[in-house]
Specification:
The complex is a heterodimer of chains A (487) and B (145).
Chain A (H helix, E strand, L loop, with lengths): L7 H19 L5 H12 L4 H26 L8 H50 L3 H12 L2 H4 L4 H15 L2 E2 L6 E2 L13 H19 L22 H15 L5 H16 L12 H25 L5 H12 L6 H6 L1 H29 L7 H20 L2 H19 L4 H26 L4 H6 L2 H23 L5
Antiparallel strand pairs in A: 1-2
Helix pairs in contact in A: 1-3, 1-14, 2-3, 2-12, 3-4, 3-11, 3-12, 3-14, 4-9, 4-11, 4-14, 5-10, 5-17, 5-19, 7-17, 8-15, 8-16, 8-17, 9-10, 9-11, 10-11, 15-16
Chain B lengths: L6 H25 L10 H23 L11 H17 L5 H15 L5 H22 L6
Helix pairs in contact in B: 1-2, 3-4, 4-5
């Protein structure tokens, strides 16, 4: 590998990108996609190596820093951080915000590193596997993601399933992606583009939490103190972190599947395979943070695989990076390795430096950031409300998105009070679009085939996914009938 | 311990039954007599049928469940007030300068939540609004209303 590009300037630029990523990822409403898009426009006159150094810094640390608001404020910066809120926020509420952030930092680092190492050694093989996925496989994969709903609902499984189905239905509001007609928009023009995920996320998690805090007795509203004595044995979870990173890399390599599916599948894996966790999942289990953070950061390496080897972006951020490649006159895909072989090394090395920046910035800033929970509720709640409003507005500069965020906040509050699962609803909302479009593509293929069943089940990938979905559903039904909790 | 039906689940189930029926009807209307196999209404129809069945299970479970109902007394006054003030703030965005309007919004919310010190409220609300405005407009290129 030619490393002649590696000098202090390169490392410094990754650092600058990482700082920007930390800030963007931790701001509710600002996405890593938005940050990289902004940087592409700012760096298009720069030298390609330098531009990629900054962009990779933003990407790696930006994905990690979504965990900061998820843990401290219960606002997931992106859908991939939803699973982190499930245990991160309860842990922070117990005063262990520092421990939660420490675990998130270490396992985001590990996940990023494993994802990038896999990118380095098996990019071509994995991209071939990703290419052999058909619409039915994507549908089954999203269905598999949806079957994790049992892990997200602690009290009432039926209400959890209903929450997920409401989410799936909401994902279908807007313009139909295949035929282009309107569906369930109630004549509201702003709903033609569908329900935007980020305002819905901020509302369902962040704003509803503010409303929930208002219902607490004043005695419970006292200021939290950080438990300085709490020491978490972070390295105890290396096996779980590595398996979650593997799940993240493989799912991340599938164009369109993305990190929310990966983090939820890893969370589900952690819940089902952790025997007698010291703290229950959903109440502050460290294993939940480990799985979610390892998996969503490992998606970085995964998403880069189809982008670099085939020119097909694995997620929204790699789609922006792809545009940066074109702006700089590069040809991603098989030709990249022939025309500019060094570019692969530049991306890989910038990502690896970025992963070390996660450790550096995470450990430097964790003690400061964790103090957020010590702020009095009378001051913190209004500021979080304002940040939620600005965050919902920032994505599309739309007042309608802000109204939607507050409405979702109120809905989320009511759902929580009535034992429905907000996380399951978000899961449905995120996966619904993927399920809908791939379901219809599959139906289209079936309708034009002479042997539809054979067409469907001929591929080994389909058979494996089908078996996994069936196993997951049967397991949930058995748990429901026997009255036990899953996991 | 009192033995009661789970009224909360029964109420939720009825709402969801009505909702799923509405979606079923709207899906059939959306299909408009076309072939179902490639219809944009097929997937919503399947989802709403599942919703209907699950709501029925919830309803039956609500009648069967025998348990003492939790005391769900919640003071909704604060919640409604908080949401209404937020809607008013959003409505006024763009009609007044962001810093001024946000300062007032934060000040009012802090007062509702019980902060009594006027100086503290004024400093926190002004500084926060100004900082957010400067960060978003100058560093992030987001034009706030």
């Amino acid at each position: 590998m030619d490393l002649s590009f590696l000098n202090m300037e390169f490392i410094f630029l990754v650092f600058i990108g990482s700082l920007t990523g930390l800030f963007i990822g931790a701001m509710p409403g600002l996405s890593v996609t938005m940050g990289t898009a902004l940087l592409v426009s700012l760096t298009y006159t720069w030298d390609t190596n330098n531009a990629m150094a900054v962009i990779m810094g933003v990407y790696t640390v930006g994905v990690y820093s979504g965990a900061v608001t998820a843990i401290l404020l219960n606002i997931p910066g992106a859908p991939s951080s939803v699973a982190t809120t499930l245990d991160g926020y309860p842990l922070a509420k117990k005063g262990d915000s520092r421990a939660a952030l420490k675990v998130a930092t270490i396992y985001s680092f590990l996940g990023t590193l494993i994802g990038l190492v896999i990118l380095g050694i098996s990019a071509r093989q994995l991209s071939r596997l990703a290419l052999s996925f058909r619409p039915i496989d994507y549908f089954l994969l999203s269905l598999l993601g949806l079957t994790t709903v049992g892990s997200l609902t602690s009290d009432n499984f039926i209400k959890g399933l209903l929450s997920a189905l409401i989410g799936v239905f909401l994902s279908m509001v807007g313009t139909d992606p295949i035929h282009g007609g309107s569906r369930f928009t109630l004549g509201i023009t702003n709903l033609q583009r569908g329900i935007p995920i980020i305002p819905a996320l901020i509302g369902l998690f962040g704003f509803s939490e503010i409303l929930y805090q208002l219902t607490l007795d004043s005695s419970k509203k006292e200021v939290l103190k950080i438990n300085k004595e709490t020491e978490v044995e972070a390295f105890k979870y290396l096996k779980l972190g590595s398996i979650s990173a593997l799940i993240g890399t493989i799912i991340g390599a599938l164009p369109g599947a993305g990190s929310p599916v990966a983090s939820l599948l890893a969370y589900n894996y952690a819940k089902k395979n952790t025997k007698k966790p010291p703290v229950q999942f959903g109440e502050g289990a460290v294993e939940g943070i480990v799985a979610s953070e390892s998996a969503n950061n490992a998606c970085i390496g995964g998403a880069l695989i189809p982008m670099l080897t085939l020119g097909v972006p694995g997620d929204a951020v790699t789609a922006v990076i792809l545009s940066a490649f074109y702006v700089h006159g590069l040809n991603p895909g098989p030709l990249l390795f022939q025309e500019t072989p060094q570019m692969f090394s530049i991306i890989l090395v910038a990502g690896i430096i970025g992963s070390f920046m996660i450790l550096l910035l995470g450990f430097l800033l964790t003690p400061i950031l964790s103090k957020v929970i010590e702020i009095k509720k009378e001051h913190l709640l209004p500021v979080v409300a304002l940040l939620s409003i600005v965050g919902a507005y920032a994505g599309n500069t739309s007042i309608f998105d802000v109204l939607l965020m507050v409405t979702f906040g109120f809905i989320g509050f009511i759902l929580k009070r009535r034992n429905f699962s907000v996380a399951a609803l978000v899961l449905g909302l995120v996966l619904g679009g993927l399920m809908d479009s791939n379901f219809r593509r599959t139906m289209s293929l079936i309708s034009s085939s002479d042997k539809p069943v054979l067409e469907l089940l001929l591929s080994p990938i389909t058979l494996v996914l089908f078996a996994l979905v069936l196993f997951s559903i049967l397991r949930s039904i058995i748990y429901y009938i026997s009255g036990k909790k899953e996991g | 311990m009192k033995k009661l039906k789970n009224k909360s689940d029964i109420f939720d189930a009825i709402i969801l039954l009505v909702l799923s029926l509405i979606i079923i009807i709207r899906s059939i209307a959306l299909n408009n007599g076309r072939s179902w196999i490639l219809s944009p209404a097929l997937f919503p129809l399947i989802v709403s049928i599942f919703m209907f069945v699950l709501s029925l299970i919830l309803l039956i479970g609500g009648f069967k469940t025998i348990k003492k109902e939790k005391d769900l007394k919640v003071n909704y006054k604060f919640i409604i007030l908080f949401v209404v003030i937020s809607y008013i703030y959003i409505y006024l965005l763009g009609k007044f300068h962001f810093i001024f309007l946000s300062t007032v919004y934060l000040y009012v919310l802090m007062s509702i939540l019980g902060e009594e010190k006027i100086g503290k409220k004024a400093i926190i609300s002004t500084t926060t609004s100004t900082l957010i405005f400067l960060i978003f407009t100058n560093f992030l290129n987001v034009l706030l209303p």
